[in-house]
Amino acid sequence: MYNKARRSKNKDEVLQRIAFVEDIIKQLQQQFDLKPRTIEVKRSIRGTLYYCLQTVEDARAKRMKGYGSVSPGLDLLIDPPINQIKHFIQEILQLIGP
Questions:
Q1: What parts of the chain have a pLDDT lower than 70?
Q2: pLDDT score of 38
Q3: How far is it, in rounded angstroms, from Cα 53 to Cα 46?
Q4: Cβ–Cβ < 8 Å for 60, 78
Q5: How far apart are CA 21 and CA 67, in angstroms?
Q6: Nearest Cα to 46, choosing from 89, 83, 85, 2?
Q7: For residue 46, how many other CB atoms are within 10 A of its CB?
């Protein structure tokens, strides 16, 4: 488990550097008459969800043995919610389609 921390001490400086890079890319695009590439969002989401499926699968009790001994019965506590998460991710993947 983890929490996402979205704080950055240098957020403004990071955003400034990103803006510089975007400007350079725009200049190159104009200079070489480059056409922007279209990114299919659905494809990106599917890739992320497959990564999530693997991460969730790695959290199953049988996979935790690599970190040391696993308490007996842990699989009965942790695997059912993990199976639920996997089920919902798979449903989302089906809803999104290929």
A1: 1-6, 8, 66
A2: 87
A3: 10
A4: yes
A5: 42
A6: 89
A7: 16
Name the residue with tokens 């999530």: 52
| pTM for this prediction | 0.61
pLDDT for res 4: 67
Give the DSSP letter string of the chain. Answer: --------TTHHHHHHHHHHHHHHHHHHHHHTTPPPPP--HHHHHHHHHHHHHHHHHHTSGGGGGGGS---TTHHHHHHHHHHHHHHHHHHHHHHH--
pLDDT the model gives residue 6? 67
Place of tokens 């001994």: 69
Structure tokens at 25: 């890319």
Q: What is the pLDDT of residue 64?
A: 77
